[in-house]
Amino acid sequence: MTSQSLWQPQQVHVNLLTRVSVLPTSLAWHQTSFPGIWFGCFESNHEVQDHPTTMLTRFDPGGFFPHHGHPGGEEILVLSGEFSDETGVHPPGTYMLNPEGFNHRPYSEEGCLTFVKLRQHGGKTRHQVRRRIFEEPWQTGINPQIRVQPLYEQVGFSEKVWVEQWLPGTQLLDVIETEIKEIFVIQGTWCDELGCYPAGSWLRYPVNSPYSPSTEAGCLIYVKTYPIADETERFVVGDDFQHPEEAILWDQELALGRAMAF
C-alpha cells in the first residue's frame, strides 16, 4: 500500500487506448465515508459510484455498506476472507455478476478483500451469476498449457469474462488483441516483455497491442474482453448510485454505523 487517505474524486487510467499495469505495491488505498471500507482504484473517473470503475475493496472486520442498488451492474470476485450480503456468505474464489435492478447490503464479519467492477454491465436483461472458481471444473484451452473456466458470456452483450490457469513454464509469443483485454492476477506471477506482475496486479491492453505473456511458476488470472469505439465511451455519467427511495435508509444506516464506531 502506498498510502491510506480519505477518498477524493479523481481520474485514474481513463484512456482506454493506452496500456496500463498496476502493481499491488503501487496501489493507493483510500478510506471511504462508509464504516470500515477502503478503496484502491485501478481505473475510475471522478466519483466511483457514478462512473465505470475497477478497484479493490477492502472490508475491515464488521465493515459494511448501507443497502443500495447498482445502476450499470456490478462484478465481484472475492479474493480473501468472506463477503456477505442477503444472498449468502461468499468465500474466496466466489465470482458474482449483479445486473441492474439488484440491491443488497454487503458486509463482512471477519473482513475481506474483493476485486470489483462497477457500472460496466448495463442492461436489465443480463443474467445474475454466482460461481465458485475453486470448486468448478476446468476446460482445456486452445493451448494445452492453459486451462479455462468461463464465468460470463451472454447473447446480446459483448463482454466476456473467464479465468485462466497457466501451468508452470507457459509462454505465448506476439499476442495481438482485437478487443480491449483486462487481466487481474489472482494467484502466482504473470509476466510480459515489460515486467512481471504478482498476485493483486491489474493490467489493461488496448486493441492491436502486441505482447508476449508467460509464467515461470504458474498463475491464475481473471480475464475480461470487450470492444470499444473510442477512449471515452465507457466513462459516461450514469444514474445516481443512490435510488431516491433508498436515500433515507442509507443516511440512517450510515449514521448508525458511525455512532457504533465511537
Q: If you had to describe this structure to a student in words, what would you say it looks like?
A:
The chain is mainly beta and 262 residues long. It has one helix at residues 247-260; strands spanning 4-6, 10-12, 20-22, 29-31, 37-46, 53-59, 68-69, 74-81, 83-85, 88-90, 94-98, 103-104, 112-118, 129-132, 139-140, 146-152, 160-166, 180-192, 195-198, 202-205, 219-226. 5% of the residues lie in helices and 41% in strands. The two termini are 26 Å apart. The chain has two domains: 4-132, Jelly Rolls (Sandwich), CATH 2.60.120.10; 139-226, Jelly Rolls, CATH 2.60.120. The strands form four sheets. Strands 1, 2, 4, 5, 6, 8, 11, 13 and 14 form a nine-stranded mixed β-sheet that branches. Strands 3, 15, 16, 17, 18, 19, 20 and 21 form an eight-stranded antiparallel β-sheet that branches. It is globular. This is Cupin domain-containing protein. One of its GO terms (molecular function) is manganese ion binding.
Features:
single chain; 262 residues; mainly beta; Jelly Rolls; 2 domains; 9-stranded mixed β-sheet; 8-stranded antiparallel β-sheet; 1 helix; 21 strands; globular
Overall shape: globular
By CATH's scheme, which homologous superfamily of the largest domain applies? Jelly Rolls
* Computed Rg: 18 Å
Largest sheet: 9 strands, mixed
Structural class: mainly beta
